[in-house]
Amino acid sequence: MAAGLNIHHNYIHQRNKQIGVPPGQHEHVDPLQTHVIRDVKIWNNVFIIDSSVLGHGMILGIQSRPGRRDTVIIYNNYIYAGGHLNPGGNPYINGFVLRWYGYVNSVYPPTYVINNTVVTSNGGENTILQEYAGKFYNNIICQLGTNGQNPANYGGTPLETFASSWNMDKTYVDSVRSNLMWRQWTNDMSFGGNRWVGSGGSPTGIINGGWNVWTNSNWGGTGINADPLFVNNVRERYGYVIASNSPARNAGEDLQAFIESKGLPWADIEGKPRNNTPDIGAFEYKGLLGVDEELQSLNFKLYQNYPNPFNPSTTINWQSPINSWQTIKLFDILGREIDTIIDGYYETGHHSTLYVVNPSLPSGIYFYQLKAGDYLETKKLVLQK
Asked: Which CATH architecture has domain 301-383?
């Protein structure tokens, strides 16, 4: 069993290139899949699967050793699983899965799923599937339709939004608290599996009904059932951004002491500090900017160097919306790489570097390019001796 893992600050966008895949079939890829791990922290990642790709957004096979209940933390991640619609039967995939293999001499570790945003669309998917019980606090759990409608209208089969598998230990309603859950085409929720246990240990079994049944006196569920009001395309990197009037605003539990006790920052996916009444989901809306300004502040931006033309040095500024590994390289007019200006891990915010050119470099037009994950931006500079 792998132990003591930290998986953080990754951006993975799975797109199906259909290389070597027969027509009508799809690749199966999972941005993050583990087999048997324990004592792991997965935080501040973005995992996106296009609708042309068959795969789970995040599938975690996590087991512990007898006598050691290794804690697992899944925190501040954005997961979008596009799914796809196959008339006559959907592939069975999920947005987020707690997987149980049931190996000999293994036990369920305490697993906390906190302040994540998990979105699925089309048919054939559970947004959340538990094969063993996790504790879900402060998450946005959103199941979108096909073109906003019930996938059944297009020949698909919608699965439950939140399912607990039949072959697991009983999962308790009061371990699923302060989440925003929404099913687009019904403005309600769907719960699956037969291992739910209501508040106080009764009733036990299947939640036959939507949100009203979940929150009634017997089951005792809590949270919010409403459109989270995303302001960006959920299929893209910043799909987790919520609007200023989102019902997720200031609706979460204060888990600062717990999060910090695990060595993680009480901040959102972009590194912004959370309030003591935090937003639900991966993104903490600060309300200091208008929506347009807020969206603009979430973009990478490479600024024009100054002075330009220059000799022998120039200043280059850029803006980063996330913590990530970033490079700026210099190319000549033929596209040949000349020099690496910066290459390292940079946090969210504004950055600046003074670039001193190699004295042997001749006068002429050059290009400098910022690269961070899939993001590229290029600008021209002129060396004039």
From this structure: Sandwich (2.60)
Name the helix (H) or strand (E) containing 129. strand 125-130
DSSP 299: S
Q: What share of the chain is helix, strand, coil (3-state, %, to 5)?
A: 5, 40, 50
Query: Which residue reads 């990197």 in tokens?
Result: 237
Q: Which is nearest to 125 in space by CA: 56, 47, 176?
A: 56
Is residue 276 within 8 A of residue 284, CB to CB? The reply is no
Q: What is the largest CA-CA distance in the chain?
A: 81
The H or E element containing residue 291 is helix 291-297
Residue 375 corresponds to which tokens in the numbers above? 């993001």
What are the domain boundaries of the chain?
2-261, 301-383
At residue 380 the predicted structure's pLDDT band, cuts being 50, 70 and 90, is: very high
**Which tokens is 160 given?**
């439950």
End-to-end CA distance of the chain: 60
* Three-class DSSP category at 151: helix
Whether the per-residue pLDDT at 137 is higher than 90: the answer is: yes
This prediction's pTM: 0.72
Pairing of β 375-383 and β 364-372: antiparallel
Structure tokens belonging to residue 374: 């899939």
User: What Rg, from alpha-carbon coordinates, does the chain have?
Assistant: 23
56 pLDDT exceeds 80? no
Work out the average pLDDT over 124-153.
88
DSSP assignments along 179-195, one per residue: -EEEETTTTB--EESS-
Beta bridge partners of 336: none
CB atoms within 10 A of CB 167: 10
Q: What is the pLDDT of residues 260-304, one digit of tens each?
A: 999 899 999 988 899 999 999 999 987 544 444 444 445 788 889
Q: Judge contact between 181 and 162, C-beta under 8 A.
A: yes
Contact predicate 140/280, CB 8 Å: yes
C-alpha 45/C-alpha 43 separation (Å) is 6
